[in-house]
Amino acid sequence: MNDPEAYPTIVALSSAPGRAGVAVIRLSGSRVRFVLETFAGVIPEPRRAALRQLRDADGEAIDQALVLFFPAPASFTGEDVAEFHVHGSRAVLARLLVVLTALPGVRLAEAGEFTRRAFEAGKLDLGAVEGLADLIDSETEWQRKQALRQMEGALGSFAAEWREALLQAMSLLAAELDFSDEGDVSGPLQEQALALAGTVLGSLRKALGSFAMGERVREGFVVVLAGPPNAGKSSLLNALAQRDVAIVSPVAGTTRDALEVRLDLAGLPVILIDTAGLRDSADPIEAEGVRRARNLLARADLALALRGIDSEPYQMDGETPVLRLATKSDLAGTPLPGELPISVKTGAGIPDLLAAIIERLHAFGRSEPALLTRERHRAAVADAIMALERAVSAEHGQGELLAEELRIAVLALERLVGRIDVEDVLDRLFSGFCIGK
What we know:
Homodimer. Heterotetramer of two MnmE and two MnmG subunits. This protein is α/β, with parallel strands linked by helices. Helices cover 44% and strands 17% of the residues. It contains 14 helices and 12 strands. A hairpin with a 2-residue loop joins strand 8 and strand 9 (268-274). Helix 6 (154-178) runs antiparallel to helix 13 (399-417).
């Protein structure tokens, strides 16, 4: 770890690129102290900002900076870490990075390398790393809350509690085997072990129940606008997006492909999709648009079924939850039972529509942030649940077989937090980070 050639000190711009009032250059590694002495003249007091003149090897001033030093192991990466808070000029940043990387043992960081070093140093478990990635990408309040909970280690804490309880149950089964010749020992110990496994099983089932909501908050709820041509789908998309996204025309069949916008509805991330009008068409391009619209409807979390208030009723098939709308309510006509009348032209009914969408999406789960947010989480917890279900429902009473089921569950939980079998996950995950993180 301390060999600068084998494990170099890394440096990167950690703030957003481009012109700004302040930018942050971050370093991590064994040569951080040398860099500070070389460019700032002195190593600042740990975790206290100091104003310093940064100079290159020839003594020429580069910029004035606030310099921070975080000595190992009390740092984000577990290594010595430094930050230079400089003026956000492209020229300053370019010069500073050139000068820093000219030093032996110092190179530009790769995507996510700071966080990867934090993971390898045990500062973050895999769930917290994923939470950090989601926090950086968060766009809505619910996404922020959920990601922050993950980054602060909620999943790792629960996984540690589950694992500890199962290890305790395994020790009870081991004691039963050790004292199998004692007639009054095996029954109570096995019962205690299975009781612990049952408690963990219940907690895992509860966590798995939150997955659907957690995944949707992380990726966005899919809400599809559907209905016959000229029902007002494109007009409604533009009104909800508050900008011109779709072409609005009285000509039927204008929308051929799916158009989508991302909305923040009371903190919920929503992907709103406008689709082709649902009708039979001899036009092969329009027919393909209708086919795609039906496929999107089948995968949607909510469908907004639009019908012009002055047009004939129509039936929408499928199992997707539907919110029925009578559009163009400023025209003559009467909404059908169960339809919400709206008018894009006057704005009538739009607030009620937004409230109804939010209410329907809230029905997916509880209001608190979910514990499981990725398919990887769901798969690991599902594997643990299946192993524990086999254990608690077994009638054979064989301690060795019960212990093996508990061991399988423990291994699944260790995959959940990144103790084992995570290299492929790490490569994909860190490649999506920005360079300075």
